[in-house]
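<goal> How does this chain fold?
<body> The protein record starts here
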Amino acid sequence: GLVYNIRAYLSEGAVPVLLGQNHDSAWWTVEEPNFSATCWIADQFVTVQGNLDGVPVLTPEPTPTMEPSPTPEQKGMKVYLVALNTGGPFGCDDGLVYFYTGKKQTDNIEDDIESALNVLLKLRTEFVGDYYNPTHNAHLHVNYVEVNPATGRVVIYLDGSIPKPADVCEAQRVHDQVWETARQISGYRDVTIHVGNKLLGDLIAVGDR
């Protein structure tokens, strides 16, 4: 399908500024005032009120490049990156977006989680397009993973080091990115991560938000 950048998140009940519409009013151009983000939103997600006679008809930007049809390898394990300052529920008003690793999900949950995390932790690029990678300066790899199918609990053991985040927002971005990557298998949401003999959560903690 077509992939568009996330410009902002609109919370339920938000009242953005209406700027325009497309030719059949199936899409509306709005501005999210808190983030000054101008974006298109489909009509099924909003209720438009008032006199619409004067709303200009605008032409959307050219559509992005069509992605190739997904193959089984593209539908497997994912890694998460951060969409900064988009009004989302992660970090400090950030969002998360995912990318497929090219690794298919198997029947071995330990191997699947290890595979996805190692792809993420080997990514040394700070930005992938518009999306931020808060673990770009970490030097970590997965030693082993333990899962308990009865409880859905996952314990991950990493080796290496990670710098102390600069602030609470950065610490939360690291946490959200790593934990959501580890939690992507349905039924396994209770995740504990160790680095050596310390908890990763303790290593990245910098104070109250």
